[in-house]
Design a protein that fits this description.
alpha+beta
Amino acid sequence: MILELFTIQVSLTLENAMLNKKFQNLSITDALTNLYNHRYFAEKMQKEISLCCYMKKEMCLIMLDVDFFKSYNDNFGHPAGDMVLKTMSKIFSQVVRPKDIAARYGGEEFAFILPETTLRDGIELAEKIRQSIENTVFPHRPVTASLGIANYPAHTTNAKELLELADKALYHAKSAGRNRVSVAPSVQNN
């Protein structure tokens, strides 16, 4: 009887631990893409900046926007648009390194934190992501993406400014014709 109760209690404890882990994972991931969500990205961004500052290391931030995504949704329906976003997630998992943090930033925007990454290496990875998207066959029509990149500490040592600079670079890529990688517009002297 005591052994049976002990077995039940151990079983319940393990089940609770598994449910807690599952709930925790759901709270930091995007349901559609299974990438990290915006909230987790923001928390991790601040931690990575602090770590880079302490360790005197570089990092890059990439912002990505799917080109003409609204028209894709409008012309082919939201389920088709959802498939594009899921496919993007698969592409990212094949291209980014295990230590990188890929997140759905919002809608059709994604963000990548690249720890211990020089600007040159970050640009190479951004271009690899862009080419992988361009070379993927999507239903209905080709899909491309625009990317902006900024580097800590070359561009700034502030998390908020790094995000703003990567976002400006993203919008520069879009205004320069889309389907390209653009580097943050100005480098500070630190």
